[in-house]
Amino acid sequence: MSDDPRASLIALTPMNPAYQYDPHSVLRPLRERCPVAHDHQAGTFIVTGYAEAHRVLANRRTYRDGAKAEAAAVLIRRQAAQLPPGVPRAEAVSILVLDDPDHARIRRPLQRAFYARVKICRPRVERVIDAALDAIDPAQPFDLMARYCVPIPVHAIAAILGVDGDNLDDFREWSEGVILGLNPFRSPEQTAVLERSRAALQVYFRAQIAERRANPSDDLISDMVALQAEGAEINDAELAINLIALLVGGNLTTTDLIGNGARQLMLNPTERDKLLAQPSLAPALVEEVLRYEGPIDITQRIMADYGEIGGCRVAATQAVTAVLRAANRDPAIYDDAEAFIIDAKRAPHLSFGGGSHICIGAPLARLEGQLALLKLFQRFPGLRMVDAEAKPRWRTLPFFRGLEELLVQA
Question: Does the predicted model carry a pTM greater than 0.90?
Answer without folding.
Answer: yes
